[in-house]
C-alpha cells in the first residue's frame, strides 16, 4: 500500500492542498447523475474511503474541509478514522466545496438528453414543460466559490485536506492550472501546491509529484497562460477578487498530478 506524506522541504508560504473525491455512491454504481442531490455510499465506497484514509494517515493536516453534501462528509469522516479525535472535531463542512448543480438532469441516468429530462421533470411536478426552469449552475458561479475557498486558505501553512466531488475538482484544476484532468475517480487524490506571494497577493498553483507513488498520473504539459481572476468575474467572493492565479512556468514541474488507489 502506498503512503503519502507532505513535501519534506516546504517553501515559505507554500502548502499542499489534498483534494479527495468522495467514495462510490449508489448513484455512481447505477450511472445516475447526482450533482447536488445526495445518495449514500456503497460498501465499495466505504472501503475506498477507509483505504485512502490509511494512505493519508501519516499526513499531519493543518485543516480539514469537506463539501456539505452527505456523501462527501461521510467519506471525510472515514478518512479521518485513523487520525486523532481533534481532527474529526475540527472538520469543516462548507458549501464552497459542493458539487456543481446539473439542473434538470440531476437524479437521472447520466446520458439523459436535456429535452427528455425537461419532460420528466414536468411530469413529476405536474406542470407544462414550458414552465420547467433549468437551474444548472453557470461556470462563473462555480469559479467564484472556488476562488472564495482558495482565498479562505490564505495564511495556512498546510497541508490541507478537502473532500469534494468529481466535476468540482476537475473545474478547480482547470480554473487554476488551465488544464482539466480526465475523469476523477471515486476517492482519487489530486494534490495541488499553493504558494502565496505576500507582497503581490498572487496565488501560484503547481504540483510536485516527487512525493507520490501511485501508478498513474497525467504527463507533463506545457503551462497555459496565467489565468487572472478579476473582481468582475468573482463578485460573490469577498476577499477573492484580488487573487491572481498563475500556473507553473517551471518545465520540471507537472501542472497537476492525478492519482487513484486500486481497492
Structure commentary:
This protein is of the alpha/beta class and 263 residues long. It folds into 2 domains: 14-102 and 139-259, Phosphoglycerate mutase-like (Rossmann fold); 103-136, no CATH class. It is built from 7 helices and 11 strands. It has helices at 26-30, 43-55, 70-79, 85-89, 114-125, 139-152, 166-177, and strands at 14-21, 32-33, 63-67, 92-94, 108-109, 160-164, 189-196, 202-206, 227-228, 244-247, 257-259. Strands 1, 3, 4, 6, 7, 8, 9, 10 and 11 form a 9-stranded mixed β-sheet that branches. Strand 7 (189-196) and strand 8 (202-206) form a beta hairpin. The model is unreliable at 1-11 and 207-263 (pLDDT under 50).
Any chance you could write out the topology, listing elements then pairs?
Blueprint: E1 14-21, H1 26-30, E2 32-33, H2 43-55, E3 63-67, H3 70-79, H4 85-89, E4 92-94, E5 108-109, H5 114-125, H6 139-152, E6 160-164, H7 166-177, E7 189-196, E8 202-206, E9 227-228, E10 244-247, E11 257-259
Parallel strand pairs: 1-6, 3-4, 3-6, 8-10
Antiparallel strand pairs: 1-7, 2-5, 7-8, 7-11, 9-10
Helix pairs in contact: 2-3
Report the span from N to C terminus: 10 Å
CATH homologous superfamily of the largest domain?
A: Phosphoglycerate mutase-like
CATH class of the largest domain: Alpha Beta
Corresponding CATH architecture of the largest domain: 3-Layer(aba) Sandwich
Residue stretches low in confidence (pLDDT < 50, at least 5 long) are 1-11, 207-263
- Helix/strand-derived class? alpha/beta
* Share in β-strands: 15-25%
Radius of gyration: 19 Å
Taken together, the total number of domains comes to 2
Fraction in helix: 25-40%
Amino acid at each position: 500500500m502506498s503512503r503519502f506524506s507532505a513535501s519534506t522541504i516546504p517553501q515559505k508560504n507554500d502548502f499542499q492542498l489534498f483534494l479527495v473525491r468522495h467514495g462510490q455512491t449508489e448513484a455512481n454504481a447505477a450511472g445516475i447523475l447526482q450533482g447536488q442531490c445526495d445518495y449514500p455510499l456503497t460498501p465499495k465506497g466505504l472501503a475506498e474511503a477507509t483505504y485512502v484514509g490509511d494512505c493519508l494517515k501519516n499526513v499531519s493536516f493543518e485543516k480539514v474541509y469537506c463539501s456539505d453534501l452527505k456523501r462527501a462528509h461521510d467519506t471525510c469522516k472515514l478518512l479521518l478514522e485513523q487520525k486523532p479525535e481533534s481532527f474529526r472535531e475540527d472538520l469543516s463542512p462548507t458549501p464552497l466545496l459542493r458539487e456543481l448543480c446539473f439542473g434538470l438532469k440531476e437524479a437521472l441516468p447520466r446520458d439523459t438528453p436535456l429535452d427528455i429530462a425537461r419532460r420528466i421533470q414536468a411530469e413529476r411536478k405536474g406542470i407544462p414543460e414550458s414552465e420547467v426552469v433549468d437551474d444548472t449552475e453557470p461556470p462563473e458561479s462555480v469559479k467564484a466559490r472556488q476562488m472564495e475557498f482558495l482565498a479562505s486558505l490564505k495564511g495556512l501553512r498546510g497541508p490541507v485536506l478537502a473532500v469534494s466531488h468529481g466535476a468540482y475538482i476537475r473545474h478547480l484544476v482547470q480554473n487554476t492550472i488551465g488544464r482539466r484532468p480526465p475523469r476523477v475517480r471515486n476517492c482519487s487524490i489530486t494534490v495541488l501546491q499553493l504558494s502565496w506571494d505576500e507582497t503581490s497577493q498572487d496565488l501560484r498553483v503547481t504540483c510536485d509529484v516527487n512525493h507520490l507513488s501511485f501508478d498513474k498520473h497525467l504527463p507533463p504539459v506545457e503551462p497555459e497562460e496565467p489565468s487572472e481572476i478579476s473582481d468582475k468575474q468573482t463578485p460573490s467572493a469577498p476577499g477573492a477578487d484580488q487573487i491572481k492565479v498563475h500556473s507553473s512556468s517551471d518545465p520540471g514541474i507537472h501542472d497537476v498530478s492525478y492519482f487513484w488507489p486500486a481497492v
